[in-house]
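$ fold --in a.seq
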Amino acid sequence: MNRLNLWLLAVLLLAVPASLLAGKVWIDPLHPAMPNASLILLELRLPRALLALALGAGLGAAGAAMQGYLRNPLADPGLFGIAPAAALGAVLALSFGLATTTWALPLFALIGAGGAMALLSLIAGRQADGQGGGIALFTLAGMMIASLAGALMSLAISLAPSPFAQSEIVTWLMGALTDRGWPEVWIAAPLTLAGLVLLRLAGPGLDALILGEAAARSLGLDPGRLQALLIGGVGLTIGAGVAVAGIIGFVGLIVPHLMRPFTDRRPSNLIVPSALAGALLLLVADCLCRVLPLVSELRLGIALSLVGAPFFLVLLLRLRRSPALDGGLG
């Protein structure tokens, strides 16, 4: 493990205990006799912190892998269409009134993510000649799926059986870790971990792509295998996150940019730091949402959008002055 990863891990080890103590009700570790302190820690804040770590790690790693694969610094995990498709599944569960059980909404969201992954593989995956459909086809297929899922989601919201259901759907789509507990952790953590492993395995292939598709193939890169690893990795990490917390944007866009200057800029060496930094960012953001003096808790997705949108604007202005649109990825 390199020095950057060790630093990030050390900061995470400091941030986790702090996040457990912070909230509307602050827990003073010097006065452990506080009523219900253990209940608040074990049943509310610990699972919420673990969810923030898992979801942030998945978003950060998926963003780094996508930017490396597409060689585009503006790439975001939502571009694959997997997040909108997972959200569509959750919206359908809410519309049909199936979200009253713990597992129904995440299950529908994971089915939506799986459907998007299958459709993406079918359109842009391996062809009869044994080669993948190329990055351009892959990107267009992802954009088509995202657009279709977004349209169907809007239709489902407009056809919701009641204004209450519409309000519930819109609130859920804002993304939050409020009221999440251990069942959501058991859903998201294993899937995210499996996705992270797949993304890490895709690292060497992403490094080869820096030289271009033709050169990478001459070096022995199997485009179909690389696409399969990316679809599986992004699908599991993003699908699991959307299934338990709604849509949380901009983490996958911001974190790789923050970490890239501290690495040798190879995609394979950016995935793990981005996962650790994504976990840290989401943990801190969720903690701040809890302690802000507002009537109701600020939704995590809104808070990150308020930070991410200006960051995206600055990034666009920087790229406008840059002679090339690779943003230094290579």
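$ fold --in b.seq
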Amino acid sequence: MTQLNDTTQPAVTDGWKVNSSLAMRRRLMDRLATVLSLCATAVALIALGSILFTLIIRGAGGLSLITFTHSTASPGLNGGLANAIVGSLIQTAASILIGAPIGMMCGIYLADYGRGWMASTTRFVSDMLLSAPSILIGLFIYELVVVPTGHFSGFAGSLALAILALPIVVRTTEDMLRLVPVSLREAGIGLGASKWRVILFICLRAARTGVLTGVLLAIARVAGETAPLLFTSLGNLDWSVSLARPMASLPVTIYQYAGSAFDDWVQLAWTGALLVTVGVLLINILVRVGFGRKGA
């Protein structure tokens, strides 16, 4: 018995030492990864905070009643951003009215009907559009709409923004519908409802929070786009609420005014950037706080 203890004791001690060393190395690596992650997070927060701080400091000086009630004007004439704000709202709303229904229908097809090469191709094209440079979308609409009609228009701008919003709605709708439990579909079919009724009145209703979140994220994406509008709606110094004419927008006005040599135009560019940032921030807060609570 004494001999058995003498032969096994060193092996157990060596194993414990090996395990202890391995555990210590893992703890060190875990702490190192935690420190690096915290440093990366701090750098990102400092960069984002710096951008937001600069926007507030430089843009808040131009916030006045004139900014919201006067159109853009020549330098020194006390112009505002009213036509650009209204133009942005119109083009963003029109793009969502065009893109959201098409994207939702496409998402329903991929989630419940799509099979084979057609579904794979649709999903592949949607993913490609999701990462496509927005300036290419603007050039595409320029060739498709602006060149044949012979002039820039708010409709062309809305169409370009709708293409950018489309893949976000498609992927969100498909993912949310796939999360709906199969038992709900089976219950609907078991009650004698047709497939399209089950999708429309049961599945979409169960996934409405996620689908609406995708639509709001699409709005946040297109609201700050500049490149596609340079080739489609172009901009307008006057009031224009007609989609058939060139239309002003906040991103294009910021782009045009930011490089100006006139101080009042540069101030309006900073103020416009602040308004776009606050608008996108409010949409994201609404998505994460409002719908997040409902989803929970």
